[in-house]
């Protein structure tokens, strides 16, 4: 869980694609503000690659680019807002939102954080590193993530999870460079984004089963909010 919290459960998985498309559309709109041509906009290029990998419809992608870049006069503006605080049992959390109405999102976050503690700016972020996060899977048998990380210029990596996905950590300025380099090292990039990695993650074993369930329930409620893009939590994977 340390890098980015992801919901579990069949009922959540059933709605995952729609929520993923919605969040990707927002990412595309925000990235497209810097230009509608991915050749000259690395942030947009990375998001578009992710959208195509999950089979996001082309017309949905095109509409998001037009809205973000203002083509056709149909511009949509989103504010990027970070909320910091604690889940139950003092587990640090950073919540990344993209919203078209901060006056709606802020009170919703205050309500959601009632079972934890909403902090002020800087109250939790000091305990996280702002990094690039690249999820990738081996494209060929025997691909070595440690060698790939070194050769591609990644700062670190977390070994493959149960899905066979390795998380490569980069300096935030090197996200695009490392993403481009990993395929030559035998890895297919699935997602690439900036995020927050906890410096001192809490060991889940230090929490009781009931406490951990309370944390999971809190995180699921936060993640279900339409304005939330990513939830980063200080729990060890």
Task: Explain how this protein is built.
The chain is an alpha+beta fold. About 3% of the residues have low confidence. The strands form two sheets. It has a four-stranded antiparallel sheet with strand order 3-1-2-8. Strands 5-6-4-7 form a four-stranded antiparallel sheet. Strand 5 and strand 6 form a beta hairpin. Helices cover 37% and strands 24% of the residues.
Determine Rg (CA atoms, Å).
18 Å
- Major β-sheet, in short? 4 strands, antiparallel
Number of strands: 8
- Overall pLDDT level: 89
The unreliable regions are 9-14
Percentage beta strand: 15-25%
Subcellular location: Cytoplasm
GO molecular function: DNA binding
Keywords: Cytoplasm, DNA-binding, Transcription, Transcription regulation
Organism: Variovorax rhizosphaerae
List keywords for this structure.
alpha+beta; globular; YebC-like; four-stranded antiparallel β-sheet; DNA-binding; cytoplasm; 8 strands; single chain; TACO1_YebC_N; 237 residues
Indicate the topology:
Elements (H helix, E strand, L loop, with lengths): L9 H5 L1 H17 L9 H12 L4 H12 L9 E9 L3 E9 L2 H11 L4 E2 L9 E11 L6 H8 L3 E3 L7 E6 L3 H7 L5 E12 L10 H15 L4 E6 L4
Antiparallel strand pairs: 1-2, 1-3, 2-8, 4-6, 4-7, 5-6
Helix pairs in contact: 2-3, 2-4
GO molecular function: DNA binding
Family: Belongs to the TACO1 family.
Main location: cytoplasm
How do you describe this structure in short?
This protein has 237 residues and is an alpha+beta fold.
